[in-house]
Write a structure and sequence with these properties.
heterodimer, A: about 140 residues, mainly alpha, 2 helices, B: about 230 residues, 5 helices, rod-shaped
Chain lengths: ~140, ~230
């Protein structure tokens, strides 16, 4: 940041603050994009893992005599339902993780915007006060 | 504030304005001629009242005469000159004060116009991704299993995410209120600075006026006494 007074640096402080804000936005956008890609990949992997594991699970019930064309087994039914429930829970956890990550990035953007706005407002206040003080001080030399 | 300039020493000694009647009568100082001191006291008293009539002090000879009339006319001219000078000085200072006041008020107006209001937390986005549905619905139905447990799990996850979103939205609303209070404090600070600058300006101009008036009166008194031959 410039060492000059609020507006004696001719807007350098404001320009630097805006530039930092833009850099932070770019970084957040990149993080959000990469996070979403990673999350989507994870979701697909989870779906694929459970899809591929479904038939072996059914087969395992059949080997124990709990499945087959002429067998109606509550144990197998409950097992398959719990398997589907677990899949949904894993998908929900990954979605929650993605949401938390995205929410953190959005909150960082909001906080960064607030910091910028507050900084610029304070800069404008310092400028106004300096102008008022100068207008008064210069009259010390108003000798008749 | 240091004095703007130091008055030149008068050939008559200390400036006449330093000799107030009270001061002189209390502490007359080394005066050789008591008649002169008495006349001086009365002259000073008369001048301090603002009067230009210095007749009857026994300084211009017995009675009046053309010399006295001429002296009165001369004194009146001196008073007129310095009164006009003081009036011009007052007008000058009034103009300076008006200019500075205008600048101060304009700075305040520009600040309020440029300030705007906080917008960061106003309608800030809070993401809430939709829950992904498990892809085993057809397989479950094939084996006579129900997707209800999975659907219940999905509903629980969605409700939890909605709760989190509501919490974040409320936080952002509170932050918006905090920011608005901060902006109000900035406005109050500017108003305080404006008032302070205007008060300091008024004090400064009053000091300058008083100093000019004092110097003008001192110079006037010197000339008056010189015109009286003192």
């Amino acid at each position: 940041m410039s060492d000059f007074s609020a507006w004696g640096d001719f807007g350098i402080s404001e320009a630097q603050a805006r530039r930092r804000r833009s850099q932070r936005t770019i970084a957040n956008e990149q993080a959000a994009t990469l996070g979403q890609l990673r999350g989507q990949r994870n979701l697909l992997n989870i779906q694929k893992q459970y899809q591929e594991g479904f038939q072996p699970l059914v087969a395992s019930y059949g080997r124990r005599g709990l499945g087959g064309p002429n067998v109606q087994s509550g144990i197998r039914t409950r097992g398959l339902e719990r398997f589907a429930e677990q899949l949904q829970a894993d998908l929900g956890a990954e979605t929650s993780r993605m949401t938390d990550e995205l929410r953190g990035i959005a909150q960082d953007e909001t906080n960064a915007q607030q910091e910028l706005e507050d900084y610029l407002a304070d800069l404008r206040l310092q400028k106004a006060l300096a102008a008022m003080q100068s207008a008064m001080n210069i009259k010390q030399f108003a000798a008749y | 504030m240091a004095p703007r300039n130091t008055p030149k020493p008068s050939p008559f000694g200390p400036r006449l304005t330093e000799y107030t009647p009270e001061k002189v009568m209390k502490n007359p100082g080394p005066v050789a001629n008591p008649v002169f001191q008495d006349a001086l006291n009365r002259v000073v008293t008369r001048l301090l009242t603002g009067s230009t009539d210095l007749s009857g002090f026994g300084l211009d000879g017995a009675g009046g005469g053309s010399g006295a009339a001429r002296r009165r006319k001369q004194n009146a001219a001196i008073m007129n000159i310095f009164n006009r000078r003081q009036g011009e000085a007052n007008r000058f200072y009034a103009g300076q004060e008006k200019q500075a006041t205008s600048t101060i008020n304009k700075a305040m107006e520009d600040f309020l116009a440029s300030l705007g209001g906080p917008t960061a937390y106003q309608n800030a986005p809070v993401p809430n991704l939709p829950q992904t549905q498990m892809g085993l619905l057809a397989q479950l139905q094939q084996y006579g299993a129900s997707p209800e447990m999975a659907q219940a799990q999905q509903a629980t996850d969605a409700a939890y995410a909605q709760q989190m979103q509501d919490i974040f939205n409320r936080s952002n609303q509170q932050m918006q209120g905090t920011d608005e209070a901060f902006y109000r404090s900035l406005q109050a600070g500017a108003r305080g600075g404006q008032a302070q600058s205007l008060m300091a300006l008024a004090n400064l101009m009053a000091g300058l006026r008083a100093q000019t008036q004092s110097e003008t009166a001192g110079a006037r008194d010197e000339l008056l006494l010189r015109a009286l031959g003192l």
